[in-house]
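Postdoc handover notes: sequence design on the structure in folder B. Input C-alpha cells:
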C-alpha cells in the first residue's frame, strides 16, 4: 500500500477512487471500500482512497473535532480492506475554497480516475456544491463514471462516525465496537507516571495517547493490551486519579496488564477497549482503593475469558 500526503506524489494513468473523511473506517465505510476494491481489482487498476486531514469541520469553523483514527491508523485500516493507495489530502482554507470542478480536475490529472464511488450523503467543493448529481455531470465531461453507495444501518439508524464518537466519549465502547466492526483503540508509548501503583504491587503502564483522538469517558475498562503482536488482559483506568490528584484536568490512560512483569518504558502499546466496568471513584483510603482494584481485576478476567 502507498500512503501519500499530497497529490503531487501521485501520477496514475487509471484508477478507481473513493473520497471521504472515512474517520474510524466503520462498517458503512467498509461497504464502500469493498465495492471499490472489488471493482478496481477486476479492472486491474489501483483502488485509491482519498481522505482529509484535519477534519473539514474543524477548518470550516465547526469547532474541534476529535478523531477516531489518526491518519496512519486510517491508512493501515484502509489497506487491510484492500486499498492500494491512500491519499491523506491536507484540508485547509485554500482547498475548502475550490469548486467541485477545480478539485475534480486536479484528481483527474494526478489519479487518472475512471470511476468514482461515494457515500449516500457525500459532497465536495465550495459550499458542498459537488453533490452526486454535480459529480456525475462533471464525470461525463472528464471521462469518469460515478456510483453512490447506500447507507449501512443498524437498529438505531444510519452508522456514522459522529454517532461512534458520541458512544466512545460516554464510555459505551461495547456498542461503538459493533458499529466499527472491531474494538475502539488508543495507542502510544509507555511513559513514566507517579509510580504509585508499583508501591501497591499493582504496577500500571502510563500510556501517552494521541490527544487529538476521542478518549473514552473516565472510568475502569476491561481491555486488551497489544505489544509485539501479542495481547494481554488488562484493567484500564482513564481519569484523574481523584483519590490522589483530584485537581488534575487531563485524564491519564493507565493499564494494569495482568500476569505481566516487564519493564516496558518507551514501548508502543495499543489498548483495545472491550467494555466499561464502572466510574472512576474517590476512595477514603489506599486499602479501599486496592480492594476495589482487586475486584476489578477479577471482573476483567471473567469478561475477557469469553471475549
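Designed sequence:
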Amino acid at each position: 500500500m502507498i500512503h501519500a500526503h499530497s497529490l503531487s506524489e501521485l501520477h496514475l494513468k487509471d484508477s478507481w477512487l473513493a473520497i471521504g473523511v472515512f474517520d474510524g473506517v466503520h462498517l458503512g465505510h467498509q461497504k464502500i471500500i469493498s465495492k471499490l476494491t472489488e471493482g478496481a481489482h477486476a479492472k486491474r487498476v489501483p483502488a485509491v482512497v482519498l481522505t482529509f486531514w484535519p477534519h473539514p469541520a474543524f477548518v470550516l469553523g465547526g469547532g474541534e473535532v476529535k478523531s477516531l483514527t489518526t491518519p496512519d491508523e486510517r491508512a493501515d485500516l484502509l489497506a487491510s480492506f484492500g486499498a492500494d493507495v491512500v491519499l491523506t489530502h491536507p484540508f485547509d482554507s485554500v482547498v475548502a475554497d475550490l469548486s467541485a470542478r477545480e478539485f475534480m480536475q486536479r484528481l483527474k490529472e494526478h489519479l487518472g480516475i475512471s470511476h468514482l464511488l461515494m457515500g449516500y450523503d457525500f459532497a465536495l467543493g465550495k459550499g458542498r456544491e459537488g453533490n452526486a448529481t454535480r459529480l456525475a455531470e462533471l464525470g461525463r465531461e472528464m471521462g469518469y463514471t460515478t456510483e453512490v453507495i447506500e447507507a449501512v444501518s443498524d437498529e438505531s439508524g444510519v452508522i456514522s462516525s459522529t454517532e461512534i464518537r458520541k458512544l466512545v466519549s460516554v464510555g459505551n465502547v461495547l456498542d461503538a465496537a459493533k458499529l466499527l466492526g472491531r474494538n475502539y483503540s488508543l495507542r502510544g508509548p509507555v511513559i513514566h507516571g507517579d509510580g504509585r501503583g508499583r508501591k501497591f504491587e499493582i504496577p500500571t503502564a502510563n500510556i501517552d495517547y494521541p490527544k487529538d483522538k476521542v478518549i473514552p469517558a473516565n472510568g475502569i475498562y476491561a481491555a486488551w493490551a497489544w505489544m509485539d503482536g501479542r495481547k494481554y488482559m488488562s484493567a484500564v483506568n482513564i481519569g484523574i486519579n481523584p483519590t490522589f490528584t483530584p485537581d488534575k484536568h487531563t485524564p491519564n490512560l493507565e493499564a494494569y496488564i495482568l500476569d505481566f512483569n516487564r519493564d516496558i518504558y518507551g514501548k508502543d502499546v495499543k489498548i483495545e477497549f472491550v467494555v466499561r466496568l464502572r466510574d472512576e471513584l474517590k476512595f477514603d483510603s489506599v486499602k479501599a482503593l486496592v480492594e476495589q482494584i482487586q475486584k476489578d481485576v477479577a471482573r476483567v478476567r471473567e469478561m475477557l475469558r469469553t471475549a
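Context for whoever picks this up: The two ends are 31 Å apart (CA to CA). Don't rerun without checking with the PI first.
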